[in-house]
Amino acid sequence: SSTMRNLAILATPLLLFISQITWAQNNKKPQLQEATKTALQEHYNTKVYPTKKAIHDDLMLQLSEADLSLLEVQRTQYEALNQEQRQVIQQLRKERQAGRTTTDRKTALAPIREKRQAILETVRPIVEQHQATIKQAMGELKDHKSEWKVERKAILTQYESAEVVDQLNQHKDKVRDKVKDHQAKTGKSLKGVKAAHFLLWDGQPKSMK
Questions:
Q1: What span, in angstroms and rounded, lies between the C-alpha atoms of 55 and 138?
Q2: How many CA atoms within 13 Å lie on the side-chain side of 170?
Q3: 9, 48, 165, 177: least buried by Cβ within 10 Å?
Q4: Is the distance from CB of 141 to CB of 52 less than 8 angstroms?
Q5: CA dist list (Å): 147 to 47, 91, 202
Q6: Could you give the angle at the alpha carbon of 16 between the alpha carbons of 76 and 11, nearest 5°?
């Protein structure tokens, strides 16, 4: 489809947009207790990660050796960019706290955005060639997400106060509204972005803390 063909062009700005959303102090995501983080990590390790990894492994089996080799190179570069972005954001945060911010976030992250777009342009032929397979994999993943959402909600309710849970929900609503506003202003959709991100995932578990 035209959406998938334009995936590489649309994905990077939208992913970056989400990563660049910042809030005023009273809109920051509330901090969770260590017990909550531990329980969420356990849920991820035992329920989310094994399923996600199995689906990802099956998807990788559908690709050619040339595809896999190309993805391996691009994943390494993609993760390096993620690390670079984290460092830039950390530095900007320190400067802001010290009251000496000289560069705005968008300008500071512009070079990383350009490099990400180059990576996705390189991956685009794989995405286009395996549209049906990728769609099936993402569908399988989506089938599990409702169950995981309910289970995470139960964990939060068990360990956190109703006030904190409400703050988390408000934070998610604000993020969703920001994304919708961006889509309305730019005419760009997030459709296909998660698929590209999944394709570039290195298959390693993440820390929830």
A1: 8
A2: 12
A3: 177
A4: yes
A5: 10, 38, 24
A6: 75
Closest CA to 112 of 75, 74, 86: 86
Hey, what are 192's tokens? 């296909």
Phi, psi of 119 (to 5 degrees): -65, -45
pLDDT tens string, the chain, 209 residues long: the values are: 555 555 544 454 455 444 444 433 445 778 899 999 999 999 999 999 999 999 999 999 999 999 999 999 999 999 999 999 999 999 988 888 888 767 788 888 999 989 988 888 888 888 888 989 999 999 999 999 999 999 999 999 999 999 999 998 888 888 878 777 766 666 555 555 677 788 999 999 988 76
What residues have CB less than 8 Å from 122, skipping those under 6 apart? 70, 74
Token code pair at residue 137:
């994999």
**Torsion on CA atoms 67, 69, 71, 77, rounded to nearest 10:** -150
All residues at 6 or more sequence positions from 81 whose CB lies less than 8 Å from its CB, including other chains: 112, 115, 116, 119
